[in-house]
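As the work plan foresaw, the team has encoded backbone shapes as discrete tokens. One protein thus recorded appears below exactly as we store it.

:::
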Amino acid sequence: MAGSDPGPAPVRRPRVAAQPTADIVIFTIRSEQLRVLLVRRGKKPYRGMLALPGGFVRPGESLEDTAKRELREETGLNGSGIRLEQLHTYSRPERDPRGRIISTAFLAVMPDPPEVTGASDAREADWVEVEESLWGPNSSLAFDHGEILRHGLEHTRTRLEHTTVATAFCDDLFTITDLRKVYEAVWGYELNPGNFHRKVVDETQGFVLKTDKVRRSGPGKPPALFRRGTADLLYPPMMRGRRTL
């Protein structure tokens, strides 16, 4: 209508053009040590430094698709059967010198994974001890991947308290000693074998199920083999002490 007040002009707010990426923290246990899958970067930035596997999202991909593709391209590891859990999103403006890049990190655990080989823009790939990766003399990781790895470690330690995820580090059949070694590797200190056995077998319902099989590996009474039980949550929880690294 003539003479009507159009009101204030719309305010134009600046928009942030950010690129999404996916990074993957995969833990396993080898030689009773907690290890994480790392690659050595073959391109700038941070060429020659260790980093978590990961990369940019391609058109038509979900974040999970990107994580599994990058895992396959950079390490040769087939991620189709790996259960990925979304860990956290990292969005500090200065986290990547290439620009505003927002990364969603995923977490997974694997029992007895295969050897890996660096490919694509990764010169090398290997299962590296977590303690060495975070606190060793050459512990600096590219980007903010040290922070992501620490978050993944603490999240996994907490999950071992309240869920049955420790069995995901084990083969289908395992001994109680195998399971205790998982807790010791992840938490970073030794546990009392008798107390642990009683807690797992007698006090926590549905954690493990005893089979009619045993492991014959030497003299003496062979230990019984167990498999994962029906529970997902632990009650009562397996609370850790204060000696965790």
The first helix runs from residue 63 to 75.
